[in-house]
Automatic annotation (TrEMBL), chain A:
It is found in: Endoplasmic reticulum membrane. This is Dolichyl-diphosphooligosaccharide--protein glycosyltransferase subunit OST2. Subunit of the oligosaccharyl transferase (OST) complex that catalyzes the initial transfer of a defined glycan (Glc(3)Man(9)GlcNAc(2) in eukaryotes) from the lipid carrier dolichol-pyrophosphate to an asparagine residue within an Asn-X-Ser/Thr consensus motif in nascent polypeptide chains, the first step in protein N-glycosylation. N-glycosylation occurs cotranslationally and the complex associates with the Sec61 complex at the channel-forming translocon complex that mediates protein translocation across the endoplasmic reticulum (ER). All subunits are required for a maximal enzyme activity. Residues 1-31 are annotated as: Disordered. Belongs to the DAD/OST2 family. The chain crosses the membrane at residues 62-81, 126-144. InterPro entries: DAD/Ost2 (IPR003038).
Automatic annotation (TrEMBL), chain B:
The lineage of its organism: Eukaryota, Fungi, Dikarya, Ascomycota, Saccharomycotina. It is found in: Endoplasmic reticulum membrane. This is Dolichyl-diphosphooligosaccharide--protein glycosyltransferase subunit STT3. It is an enzyme of class 2 (transferase). Belongs to the STT3 family. It comes from Nadsonia fulvescens var. elongata DSM 6958. It comes from the Eukaryota.
From TrEMBL, chain C:
Component of the oligosaccharyltransferase (OST) complex. It is a single-pass type I membrane protein. The chain crosses the membrane at residues 447-468. This is Dolichyl-diphosphooligosaccharide--protein glycosyltransferase subunit 1. One of its GO terms (cellular component) is oligosaccharyltransferase complex. Subunit of the oligosaccharyl transferase (OST) complex that catalyzes the initial transfer of a defined glycan (Glc(3)Man(9)GlcNAc(2) in eukaryotes) from the lipid carrier dolichol-pyrophosphate to an asparagine residue within an Asn-X-Ser/Thr consensus motif in nascent polypeptide chains, the first step in protein N-glycosylation. N-glycosylation occurs cotranslationally and the complex associates with the Sec61 complex at the channel-forming translocon complex that mediates protein translocation across the endoplasmic reticulum (ER). All subunits are required for a maximal enzyme activity. Residues 1-20 form the signal peptide. Its main location: endoplasmic reticulum. It comes from the Eukaryota. It is found in: Endoplasmic reticulum membrane. GO terms for biological process: protein N-linked glycosylation via asparagine. PANTHER family: DOLICHYL-DIPHOSPHOOLIGOSACCHARIDE--PROTEIN GLYCOSYLTRANSFERASE SUBUNIT 1, RIBOPHORIN I. It comes from Nadsonia fulvescens var. elongata DSM 6958.
C-alpha cells in the first residue's frame, strides 16, 4: 500500500461522479436498513448535489475516495496480515491524515463557516493545507523508509 | 482631525510599549539565565547529578559518531553482560539539540567544548521558556499578565530545580517545549488554522523526542477538547486544530524509535485516539445535520451512536485481551495509587523523586504563587473562554500529578505562574489607578482591551460606562486602601524574589558530584571524593574493567570513570539490579560466585559515615535487600537485617547477616582502625547513623581487597580477587597469608645477600 | 641571535657502520676521568670531567666519546663543554659499532690540541628510565628501594690513567648487589666513592648494581601536548598543556589502603630527615610548576572537570603553580591533567621591521620529571605569513597546518614540533618564531565577523520582504 496512491487518483476524480452515491459508507448502510426514509435521503443527496460547487464536490469525492482506500487497507491488513507493520501504518495514516486535512480545508473554505474563522481566508487555508500535506507526507515517507 | 491625532498617539504608544515589552522580556531572560548560573559561579562548569551524566555521555557519542550511528548505538559498556540498545531506548531530543548547537558553533569556528554547551543548555532554554510563558499568558489575558508570568516562570524555584546550569536533563528543554506546544495549541484552537495545528504538532514531535512526559500533552489536549465537547462548545475550529494536530503529531511522534508504535498501542495514548475518533463523528454529524432533515438526522444519530459505542467497546476489550494494546505501565499505576509502587515495584519507589510530594515543598517551590494560583483560576473561571478551559484543565491535572510525584511539580509550575500572573495583573489593574476618576479609567482600559480583543462586542459595553461621582473623602479613603494593597503586594513580590534567589542558591545549585563544606575559618571547602575515585578508576584500571555498584552510580561511572557497569540509572532490567542487590546483601561466600559469574573486577561502594554524607549505600541498603528479596525470597530476607527489636543497626548490635553482608564489610573495612587512637579504641564512629562500630566487629575481607578509598572515605573501591593460583580456597589463602605475614615480621630481615653500605 | 642554535640530535644521522670503531684512532689518553653520578633525583645525572692528552704525533681536534648503545635511547641530555672557558662543544653522532655495542660521538675540541698537550672537558648526561624499583611491589608501610645499574668504571674509547666515580644518594641505605672484592666503595656522608682505579683499558666496564632507598617518586610524563596561542588582539600568549604522567616507582602490594596512607600522612614534607618515610611519601601528592614571571589566570582541569586543589602564587621573580592531583599517584598509577595560563605577549615579542619575533620557553612543566614524548604546537595569529621556527633543540618531526578557532575565516597557521626523550633540564631552552603580520590581516577578523553579521541581518530583512511578497501575490492569484 503506498503513500502515493492517495495523491494520484485525485486528478481523475472529477470524472468518477458515480462514486458520489456511495458517499459515506455508513450513510449508505443506514439507508438500506431504513427503507422508509430512503426517499428523504435521496432528496437530501439531490439537494447537496444541486447546492455544492465544483470545488466542494472535488473535495468530497477525494475524501470519499480516501475513506474507501483506508477501509480497503484495513481489510487487507486484517485478511493478509500486517507484516511490515510500519508500511501498513504509514499507508493507513497517510489516508487518515489526508482525509482530515482535506476535511479541514473543506470546513475552512465553506462560506457558511466564515464567521467561525475570522482570521483564516480561503487562500490561507489552501496554503495551510499544502503545508500540512507536505509535513504529513514527509513524515509518512520517513516512516516507511 | 482629533481622531487622527488620537490614532497616531495610540500608534506611538503601542510602539513604545512594544519596545518596552521586548526590553523587559530580554531582561527576564537574562535574569532567568543568570540566576541559574549560581552553580557555575560557586562550583564550576560541571554536569550535575546522575541522569545528566548519561545524557552528556550520549551527547558526546552523538558528536563523535554522527547521527545515524547514534540512533543505532548498542552500548556494551553498560548492563554487562547484556548491553543496552541505547539508540532505541532514549529520547534523543536533548542530545540532538546540543549536537546541532555544537555543529552550528563549529561552522562559525567557535570551538566551544560540548561540555559547556551541555551545561549551559538548561539556562538558555529557561530564557526561551519565559518567552513561551509570556506568549501563552498573553493568549489568556494580556501582555502585562504575560510579562508577569514570564518573570515568575523565569525565577520560580519549581522550575529552577530542574534547569540550573549543569542539570543537563530532558526536563531542561521539555518545559519550554511543553509551554510552546500549549501556546501553539491555544493559537490553533483560537484561529482554527491548520498551520498553527501543524506547528503545534511539530513542537509536539520535538517534545516527544525530548521527554517521556510528552504523555502529559498527549492527554491534556484531548481532555481539553473532550471538556469542550461535553460543554457543548464544539465548533469547527476545534475540529481543524485537533485533527491537524493529532494526525500530524501522532504520525511524527512514531518516528522516534523509543516511542515506536506506542501511540496506537499503549493505553496512555488511547484517550487521544478516542477523542480524535469522537471528533470525526461529531464533525460528520454536524455535516449531516446541515445536509439532512432534522428528523432523519435524529434517527441516524441515535442508531449510529449506539452502534459505534458497542463496536468500539467490543474492539477495545478484544484488543486488550489479545494483547495488541499494551496494559498500563507500572509508573502509570503508581500515578493513581501512591502505594502501588511501594508494594509492587520497589525499584520505582526507591527513587526519591518518585515519592509523593510533601506539602511544604509546594510553598518552597513556588512561594506566594501557590496561594495566588486558586485566585487566578477563579478569575479565569469568570471569563471562561475556550482557552481558559485549557488552563483550568491543566491546573486540575497538574495539581493532581504534582501531588503524587515530587518531580511532576515541574509540570505544575508553569500553570501556577500563569494563573498567579493573571491574578496579580487583575489586581494591579484595579489598584494602580490614582486619578480622581480611577474607576472610570479602569473601565476605559477594560474597554480598550475589548476593542483589541473582541471588536464585535465593544458597542454593547460602551454604554455601560457610567458616570461615577465620588466625594473627596471617599476618594482619599480609596487611595489609602489602594496604596496599602499595592504596597503589600509589592512587598510580597519582593519577598518572592528574595525567596527564589535564596532557594536557588542554597537548595538547587549543588552539583551533588561535588559537595561543599566549610573550613573552620569559614572559607569554602570542596569535597571532591566522587571525582577523585572515578578518576582513579579511569586512569588506573584496564579499559574494559567491569565495575559493580548500586545502580545510582551507574551513569556517573559510565560518564566520569568510563568503565563498564553492571547496572545503571536506566533500571530497565529489574532482575539484573536484584542480582547486584543480592551480591551486596549476601555473605562473601555467596557473593563470590555471583561476582565471578558477572566478571566483576571492581566493586564501588559509597560510604558517608566518616564525613556524615547521608546519601550513602548503607542507607540505601534496605532497598537493595527489598529488590533482591522480590526475586529471591529464599536467599535474602529483609527481616534478618533488623535486630530483634526491629532496629536497623550497624554497630555492635548489628545482626550476623548484616555483619556478613558484602556491603557492610566493604563500607566499614578498616574504618574502626582509623579511630584506634582517637576515642580510646572504642571503634569507628559513623556520623550518619550515629553509631559506633566497635573494633571487635571490624570486618575482614577474603575474596576482595581494597583498591582505593577516597580522601574522605566517601567512595571505596574494592578489587575482586582472582581465583588463587595455587587452587586454594580464597578464605584459606587469606588466613594463610596472614599467618605468614606475622611470622615474617617476627623473623629478622638480616639474611640479605647484599652488603649494606650505610645505615 | 643571542641564544645559540641546535646542538645535538641523538636520533639524527645514524651512520651505523662497522668502521665506526676504525674511525676512532688511539690518539688520546684520558689522564684523569672522574665521574659524579647524582642519584638523588628521579632521573640520573652524570657529569664527567675528563683531562685528555694528545698522544699522537699530529695536532688533534676531534675527541671520540663512547656510550653504551643500549643506553642511547634513554639519554635525554648530552652536553659537552670546555672547562676553562665554559664554552659548549659541538657533538656529532658518528655511529654504532655493533661488535662492541658501542655508540660513538665526536666532540669538537675548542682548539687544535698539540701533541702531548692536555685539555679538560666536561660532559653532562641525563639518563631516563634507568632506575627500577626493587622489589617492584612493597607494602604500604615499607620504603621504596630503587636499583641503579651502571658501571664502576667509565666507558671510554681511550685508555684511562686514573678514574673515580662519586655517587650521591638521598636515602639512608645503599646496598650493593653482587659486590666484588677489591672494588668496594668508600662511604662518606651522603656519598659513595668508587676508586680511584688506575690504568683502565679502552671499552672496559665493571657492572655496578646499587639498591638504595629513595623517597622520590619517579615521575614520568608519557606525553605532553603543549600549545601556545599567540594573539595580538588580546595581547597575550595563552598556554595550554595536557599531561599524561605516571609514577614508575614501587607499587603497592595489596591495593591502596587509605587508612595506612592517613596514618603516615603526618610526615613533614620539608623535613630533611628521611629516615621515617615509607612508600606513601614516594607517591606524587603535589606537582610544582614554575612559570615565567608575569604568567596569570592559571587553571587546572582534567577530563572530568576542574580540580579545585591548586594554588597559584605570583611574585616578582616568577609564578608558581602548585598542583595537587586528585589522588596520590603511587607507583604504577597514571594521571592525566590539563593546565593553562596566560602570558603577556609584550614581554616576549620583538618587532623587527616587517617581522615579529616571539620567544617561547621550550618546556615549563613540573620539576624533576622526564618526558617520553612532547608535541609542542605554536598557533600564530590569523593571517600571519612567512612563518619561521627556530628551536634551540632540533625536533624529531615538524608539521605545519591550520587551526580554526574563534570566528576564523582563513584559519591560523600552526607549527607542531615533536620531540621524544626530553628532560626537565631543558627548561631554559627557548623557541623563536618569526612571522609577518600586516595591519590588514590584523583587522581582517573584525571585518569578517561584522560582514557575517551584516549578511545575517540583510538576509533576515530580505526574507521578511520576500514573505510579504508571496502572500500578496498569492492573494492576487486566487
Amino acid at each position: 500500500m503506498s503513500k502515493r496512491s492517495s495523491k494520484v487518483p485525485a486528478m481523475s476524480t472529477p470524472t468518477s461522479i458515480k462514486r458520489e452515491t456511495t458517499l459515506e459508507p455508513k450513510q449508505s448502510i443506514k439507508s438500506t436498513s431504513t427503507s422508509t426514509s430512503s426517499l428523504t435521503l435521496c432528496q437530501s443527496v439531490h439537494n447537496y448535489w444541486a447546492s455544492a460547487t465544483t470545488k466542494v464536490k472535488l473535495m468530497d469525492t477525494f475524501m470519499a475516495f480516501l475513506v474507501v482506500l483506508g477501509v480497503l487497507q484495513f481489510i487487507f491488513c486484517v485478511l493478509v496480515g500486517n507484516f511490515p507493520f510500519n508500511a501498513f501504518l504509514g499507508g493507513f495514516s497517510s489516508t487518515v491524515g489526508q482525509f482530515v486535512l482535506t476535511a479541514c480545508l473543506r470546513i475552512q473554505t465553506s462560506p457558511s463557516n466564515v464567521q467561525q474563522f475570522p482570521q483564516v481566508s480561503p487562500e490561507r487555508s489552501l496554503g495551510d493545507f499544502i503545508v500540512g500535506s507536505l509535513i504529513l507526507h514527509f513524515a509518512v515517507y520517513h516512516f516507511i523508509n | 482631525m482629533k481622531l487622527k491625532q488620537l490614532t497616531f498617539s495610540v500608534d506611538t504608544a503601542e510602539r513604545v510599549q512594544l519596545l518596552l515589552r521586548v526590553i523587559i522580556l530580554i531582561g527576564i531572560a537574562a535574569v532567568a539565565i543568570s540566576s541559574r548560573l549560581f552553580s557555575v559561579v560557586r562550583f564550576e562548569s560541571i554536569i550535575h547529578e546522575f541522569d545528566p551524566w548519561f545524557n552528556f555521555r550520549a551527547t558526546k557519542y552523538l558528536v563523535n559518531n554522527g547521527f545515524y550511528k547514534f540512533l543505532n548505538w548498542f552500548d556494551d559498556r553498560t548492563w554487562y553482560p547484556l548491553g543496552r540498545v541505547t539508540g532505541g531506548t532514549l529520547y534523543p531530543g536533548l542530545m540532538v539539540t546540543s549536537g546541532i548547537i555544537h555543529k552550528i558553533l563549529h561552522i562559525f569556528s567557535l570551538p566551544i567544548d560540548i561540555r559547556n554547551i551541555c551545561v549551559l543548555l538548561a539556562p538558555a532554554f529557561s530564557g526561551l521558556t519565559a518567552y513561551a510563558t509570556y506568549l501563552f499568558t498573553k493568549e489568556m489575558k494580556n501582555e502585562a499578565a504575560g510579562l508577569l508570568a514570564a518573570a515568575f516562570m523565569g525565577i520560580a524555584p519549581g522550575y529552577i530545580s530542574r534547569s540550573v546550569a549543569g542539570s543537563y536533563d530532558n526536563e531542561a528543554i521539555a518545559i519550554f517545549l511543553l509551554m510552546i506546544t500549549f501556546y501553539l495549541w491555544i493559537k490553533a484552537i483560537k484561529l482554527g488554522s491548520v498551520f498553527w495545528g501543524a506547528t503545534c504538532a511539530m513542537f509536539y514531535f520535538y517534545m516527544v523526542a525530548a521527554w517521556g512526559g510528552y504523555v502529559f500533552i498527549t492527554n491534556m489536549i484531548p481532555v481539553h477538547v473532550f471538556v469542550l465537547l461535553l460543554m457543548g462548545r464544539y465548533n469547527d475550529r476545534i475540529y481543524v486544530a485537533y485533527s491537524s494536530w493529532y494526525a500530524l503529531g501522532t504520525l511524527a511522534s512514531m518516528q522516534i524509535p523509543f516511542v515506536g508504535f506506542l501511540p496506537i498501542r499503549s493505553s496512555e495514548h488511547m484517550g487521544a485516539l478516542g477523542v480524535f475518533g469522537l471528533l470525526q463523528l461529531v464533525a460528520f454529524s454536524q455535516f449531516l445535520r446541515n445536509q439532512l432533515s432534522p428528523k432523519l438526522f435524529k434517527r441516524i444519530l441515535i442508531s449510529s451512536v449506539i452502534g459505534i459505542i458497542t463496536l468500539a467497546g467490543l474492539a477495545l476489550t478484544a484488543m486488550t485481551y489479545a494483547g495488541v494494546i499494551a496494559p498500563w505501565g507500572g509508573r502509570f499505576y503508581s500515578l493513581w495509587d501512591t502505594n502501588y509502587a511501594k508494594v509492587h515495584i520497589p525499584i520505582i519507589a526507591s527513587v526519591s523523586e518518585h515519592q509523593p510530594t510533601a506539602w511544604p515543598s509546594f510553598f518552597f517551590d513556588t512561594h506566594m504563587l501557590v496561594w495566588l494560583f486558586p485566585a487566578g483560576i477563579y478569575l479565569i473561571f469568570q471569563e471562561l473562554r475556550d482557552e481558559h478551559l485549557f488552563v483550568i484543565v491543566y491546573a486540575v491535572l497538574g495539581s493532581y500529578f504534582a501531588g503524587v510525584m515530587v518531580r511532576l511539580m515541574l509540570t505544575l509550575t508553569p500553570v501556577i505562574c500563569v494563573s498567579a500572573a493573571v491574578a496579580i495583573n487583575t489586581l494591579f489593574e484595579m489598584y494602580t489607578n490614582f486619578t480622581i476618576d480611577g474607576v472610570k479609567c479602569t473601565l476605559t482600559i477594560t474597554n480598550k482591551q475589548n476593542i483589541i480583543e473582541e471588536p464585535t462586542q465593544v458597542a454593547g459595553k460602551k454604554e455601560s460606562e457610567t458616570k461615577v461621582e465620588e466625594s473627596d473623602k471617599e476618594f482619599y479613603l480609596g487611595l489609602v486602601g489602594k496604596f496599602a494593597v499595592i504596597t503589600s503586594f509589592a512587598l510580597y513580590l519582593f519577598m518572592f524574589v528574595i525567596h527564589c534567589t535564596w532557594v536557588t542558591s542554597n537548595a538547587y545549585s549543588s552539583p551533588s558530584v561535588v559537595l561543599a563544606s566549610r573550613n573552620p575559618d569559614g572559607s569554602q571547602l570542596l569535597i571532591d571524593d566522587f571525582r577523585e575515585a572515578y578518576y582513579w578508576l579511569r586512569m588506573n584500571t584496564e579499559e574494559d574493567a567491569r565495575v559493580m555498584s548500586w545502580w545510582d552510580y551507574g551513569y556517573q561511572i559510565g560518564g566520569m570513570a568510563d568503565r563498564t557497569t553492571l547496572v545503571d540509572n536506566n533500571t530497565w532490567n529489574n532482575t539484573h539490579i536484584a542480582t547486584v542487590g543480592k551480591a551486596m546483601a549476601s555473605s562473601e561466600e555467596k557473593a563470590y560466585p555471583i561476582l565471578r559469574k558477572h566478571d566483576v573486577d571492581y566493586i564501588l561502594v559509597v560510604f558517608g559515615g566518616h564525613l556524615g554524607y547521608s546519601g550513602d549505600d548503607i542507607n540505601k541498603f534496605l532497598w537493595m535487600v527489598r529488590i533482591s528479596e522480590g526475586i529471591w525470597p529464599e536467599d535474602i530476607k529483609e527481616r534478618l537485617f533488623f535486630t530483634d527489636k526491629g532496629e536497623y543497626k550497624v554497630d555492635g548490635e548489628a545482626t550476623q547477616t548484616m555483619r556478613d553482608s558484602l556491603l557492610y564489610k566493604m563500607s566499614y573495612y578498616n574504618y574502626p582502625d582509623l579511630y584506634a587512637s582517637i576515642n580510646n579504641g572504642a571503634g569507628g564512629y559513623d556520623r550518619v547513623r550515629q553509631q559506633t562500630i566497635p573494633m571487635s566487629v571490624s570486618p575482614k575481607l577474603n575474596v576482595i581487597e581494597e583498591a582505593f578509598t577516597s580522601e574522605n572515605w566517601i567512595v571505596r573501591i574494592y578489587k575482586v580477587k582472582d581465583l588463587d593460583n595455587m587452587g586454594r580456597d580464597l578464605f584459606k589463602a587469606t588466613a594463610f597469608d596472614e599467618g605468614r605475614n606475622k611470622k615474617k615480621r617476627k623473623a629478622s630481615s638480616s639474611d640479605k645477600k647484599a652488603a649494606t653500605l650505610r645505615v | 641571535m643571542k641564544w645559540s642554535l641546535s646542538f645535538i640530535s641523538l636520533c639524527g644521522s645514524a651512520i651505523s657502520c662497522a668502521f665506526a670503531s676504525d674511525l676512532v684512532l688511539p690518539n688520546f689518553k684520558n689522564i684523569e676521568f672522574s665521574r659524579r653520578i647524582d642519584l638523588s633525583r628521579a632521573n640520573v645525572h652524570l657529569s664527567d670531567s675528563i683531562t685528555i692528552q694528545n698522544i699522537a704525533k699530529v695536532p688533534q681536534s676531534e675527541y671520540f666519546y663512547a656510550l653504551d648503545a643500549t643506553e642511547v635511547d634513554n639519554v635525554a641530555l648530552f652536553f659537552a663543554s670546555h672547562k676553562k672557558s665554559q664554552s659548549r662543544l659541538e657533538i656529532r653522532d658518528v655511529g654504532v659499532d655493533f661488535e662492541t655495542d658501542t655508540s660513538y660521538y665526536s666532540i669538537k675540541l675548542p682548539y687544535e690540541l698539540q701533541p702531548q698537550d692536555t685539555i679538560e672537558i666536561q660532559i653532562l648526561k641525563g639518563i631516563v628510565n634507568c632506575l627500577k624499583p626493587l622489589p617492584e611491589f612493597v607494602d604500604q608501610n615499607e620504603k621504596q628501594f630503587l636499583l641503579y645499574t651502571g658501571s664502576k668504571i667509565p666507558l671510554s674509547a681511550y685508555p684511562i690513567g686514573e678514574t673515580s666515580t662519586k655517587l650521591a644518594v638521598l636515602g639512608s641505605t645503599v646496598d650493593e648487589l653482587d659486590p666484588e672484592e677489591g672494588f668496594e666503595p668508600n662511604v662518606s656522608d651522603n656519598n659513595l666513592l668508587f676508586g680511584p682505579y688506575k690504568d683502565i683499558h679502552p671499552l672496559s666496564s665493571k657492572t655496578m648494581l646499587l639498591r638504595y632507598d629513595s623517597p622520590i617518586p619517579l615521575v614520568k610524563v608519557d606525553k605532553l601536548e603543549r600549545e601556545a596561542w599567540i594573539s595580538h588582539w588580546s595581547n597575550q600568549i595563552a598556554f595550554e598543556e595536557r599531561y599524561w604522567l605516571s609514577n614508575l616507582g614501587a607499587k603497592i602490594k595489596d591495593g591502596f589502603s587509605r587508612l595506612k596512607f592517613m596514618k603516615s600522612a603526618r610526615f613533614n614534607v620539608n623535613s630533611q630527615n628521611f629516615k621515617d618515610y615509607n612508600i606513601n611519601f614516594s607517591s606524587v601528592r603535589e606537582l610544582t610548576v614554575p612559570l615565567q614571571a608575569g604568567s596569570e589566570n592559571a587553571y587546572y582541569t582534567d577530563l572530568v572537570g576542574n580540580v579545585s586543589t591548586s594554588r597559584f602564587r605570583v611574585d616578582e621573580k616568577g609564578s608558581l603553580l602548585q598542583l595537587k592531583p586528585r589522588y596520590p599517584i603511587f607507583g604504577g598509577w597514571n594521571y592525566n591533567f590539563t593546565i593553562g595560563w596566560e602570558y603577556d605577549l609584550k614581554k616576549s615579542l620583538k618587532k623587527d621591521g616587517e617581522r615579529y619575533l616571539v620567544k617561547i620557553p621550550f618546556i615549563e612543566g613540573p620539576v624533576d620529571v622526564s618526558y617520553n614524548e612532547i608535541d609542542l604546537t605554536v598557533i600564530l595569529p590569523e593571517g600571519a605569513t612567512a612563518v619561521k621556527v627556530e628551536p634551540s633543540i632540533v625536533p624529531k618531526d615538524t608539521a605545519e597546518f591550520t587551526t580554526y578557532s574563534f570566528f576564523d575565516s582563513i584559519g591560523r597557521p600552526s607549527v607542531k614540533l615533536s620531540y621524544d626523550t626530553i628532560m626537565d633540564h631543558y627548561r631554559r631552552e627557548v623557541i623563536i618564531i618569526s612571522y609577518e603580520l600586516t595591519t590588514r590581516a590584523l583587522y581582517q577578523k573584525p571585518v569578517a565577523i561584522s560582514a557575517v553579521f551584516g549578511a545575517f541581518f540583510v538576509t533576515i530583512y530580505l526574507l521578511s520582504q520576500i514573505n510579504l511578497n508571496i502572500s500578496s501575490t498569492k492573494k492576487n492569484k486566487l
